[in-house]
Amino acid sequence: MSEQQLLRDKHIDYIASLDTKKDDLEYWLSEHLRLNGVYWGLTALYLLDSIETFNKEDVIQFVLSCWDHKTGGFAAFPRHDGHLLTTLSGLQILATYNALERLGSEKQEQLEKFILSNQKADGSFQGDSFGEVDTRFVYTALSCLSILHKLTKEVVEPAVSYILRCYNFDGGFGLNPEAESHAAQAFTCIAALAIVGKLDSLTPAQQENIAVWLSERQVPEGGLNGRPSKLPDVCYSWWVLSTLSILQKADWIDFPKLTEFILHCQDPKNGGISDRPDNEVDVFHTVFGLGGLSIMKYPGLRDIDPVYCMPYTVTKYFQRKYSD
Amino acid sequence: MHGVTRREWTKELLRKKREKERQEILDYRELSDEVLELKNKRVANKDSLLKTTQLLNINPEFNTIWNYRREIIKLLAPSLDQTFWDGELAFTMDKLKVRPKVYWIWNHRVWCLEHYPNSPLKIWLKELAIVGKLLEMDARNFHGWHYRRYIVSTVERLSGNCLNSQEFEYTTAKINQNISNFSAWFQRTNIIEHMLARDQIADKESFIDDEFQYIKNAMFTDAEDQSVWTYLIWFIKESALKEHMTSEKYSSMLKELTEIIELINDDDISFSGKDNIWCLKTLLVIEFIQKDILKEDIKSKSREYLDKLIIIDPLRKNRYLYQIRAL
Question: In chain B, which residues have their Cβ closer than 8 Å to the Cβ of A274?
């Protein structure tokens, strides 16, 4: 097997090509993921040190066009409904461009109201008024509030206690209390605790148990899976490695083997990264593959904050602590 | 895209694909535009409902359209009969069969059950049978297991009957079908904790003995499978069951386990020439309990296990080195 290299230029070309695929049905069928997709693309470009590939003003205009005045949040696409997931993507893009002020104070207040309105009595969050509850939304809510400098004790403390209820004996976290451990939920729970400076609400033994469970995600092929006895998938390179990095145990993963796995998932012809070798690439796996490589200090990639999956130069301005 | 094989698109193939999709794109965009416009005008009638059906048939992942559909149904509810709701449940089932991992569809189905006229117990019981079928198709589907817990809790609330023993038997059946089904083992831990919390295990001693026997059988069936080992570690270290054992019994159980695991490991060595990774990892946990919790004066082999693990499980070498430093 020949030594694989990161196909930097091809990945940039691939990301640049995403908005030119309007002749493909898939482009239209994925509108409900568009704002998330723009965040993934922009962050991938940042990692590749090529952020100028996107036209900043066009992207900001697109984000603002996704504003849903009925909910007071961002939707995935103009005329769609606002949701916490897409609200975070919108804020991440604006923050990355240092353009949060483009929102104006009125929208910032509406955003705060929208986010807070989705917190339930037990501290959990629903994604929108339709009631789906998931630890993903605790993370998105706390990350949004941190970006907007709106974290308060009243929001954070119940959220933290909810997260702790989702911790499982095996060292993982579920999407709800009693739900099976899943690596993406380990990220949302640990990173949410890290945002609000509450990692110490887990005992050192629990933190070690979490790191042990995460290290078990690496399979002989070198990639990481999301749950026991599942296939490896590039996106877990981010969910698992970023979480271990927050716990200062990233080296519990074999870096050369994981690097090789991610590089094998590149499309050598058109760029982009897929979930597993020889599968169809997409921007989601591209950014999380690159993010994983960045945590492993792959040469030529920029550093990224494992808590926010955003540049450190941006996240250093976010609110990390809240006043009592 | 998850699990989609990469295709080589020659110019000719691409041209054909685009030719085929040209009309589909036009139709889809026209329909999508029309439905979003109806939504904007808050049009709620049978026609707008039908339009959402058409759009969701093409794109079942379009969450905004599911939202709009619910708004329409809420407004039309007084004129909708049971046949409509049965049809709505059938519609979501069709979509779930195509996209079993799409959160929005599961969410819509829950909403239907909750808004079904009077939401009677019998539809939830029927749903429990349906989720059983879904878990037969994909025994690890995590939405399915999550959904099952939700259905069970609703059935319990509506019927006033606790389903713990039935659900405990369900996990036994799922594990017996496939010993590697960690989702079932995991659910078993939830149910046992519930049964203990509600004091539903009359003879705890024989329950513990039976469960221990069940685990031992599983270990001998497949010593390579991490599900059993993870469950075993829960059983001896984390579960509330151990509070119902005398320290003598707990201690002798750990000793017996050590002997069994060493036996399984020796078998593996003579068969493959290598130690069994999970045997060593579990022996480490047992030693930890013996030393740190039971304060027993044992001759520790932890260092030896960790040294071996570094060689036979090199992916996790740094973790084992960390654990050696912590000894």
Answer: 1, 6
Q: A183, A239 in Cβ contact below 8 A?
A: yes
Instruction: Report the pLDDT value the prediction gives residue A154, as an integer from 0 to 100.
Output: 97
| Predicted pLDDT of residue B2 | 76
* CA gap B76, B49 in Å, rounded: 10
Question: Reduced to 3 states, what is the DSSP secondary structure of residue A274?
Answer: strand
Interface list for A 205-244 with B (CB within 8 A): 211-212, 215-216, 218, 220, 227-230, 233
Which residues of chain B are within 8 Å of residue A85 when distances are taken between CB atoms?
Answer: none
* Interval B265-285 mean pLDDT: 96
Query: Rg for chain B (alpha carbons), in Å?
Result: 27
All residues of chain A having their beta carbon less than 8 Å from the beta carbon of residue B182 are 180, 227-229
E strands within chain A? 67-68, 73-74, 273-274, 281-282
| A29, B4, B18 from B23: Cα distances, Å | 14, 24, 9
DSSP conformational letter for A302:
P
- Three-class DSSP category at B5: strand
pLDDT more than 70, % of chain B:
100
CB-based contact B1 A253, cutoff 8 Å: no
Q: Which residues of chain A have pLDDT under 70?
A: 1-3, 323-324
Nearest residue of chain A to residue B320 (CA atoms)? A252
Token pair listed for B317: 């070498």
Nearest Cα of chain A lies from the Cα of B18 at a distance, in angstroms, of 6
* Residue range B219-239, pLDDT digits in tens: 999 888 899 999 999 999 999
| 3-state secondary structure string across A111-162 | HHHHHHHCECCCCCEECCCCCCECHHHHHHHHHHHHHCCCCCHHHHHHHHHH
pLDDT tens-digit series, residues B43-73:
999 999 999 999 999 999 999 999 999 999 9
Provide the CB-side half-sphere exposure for A180 (13 A, CA): 24
Domain A8-315 sits in CATH at 1.50.10.20
Nearest CA in chain A to B65: A80
Decide if A29 touches B, using CB distance below 8 A: yes
* Cβ contact A180–B186 (<8 Å): yes
Architecture of domain B206-327: Alpha Horseshoe (1.25)
Contact with chain A for residue B162, Cβ under 8 A: no
Regarding an ipTM greater than 0.90, the answer is yes
CA-based nearest residue to A207, from A254, A233, A261, A243 = A243
- The ranges assigned to domains in chain B are 206-327
CA–CA dist B124, B130 (Å, integer): 9
In this structure, which amino acid lies at residue B263? L
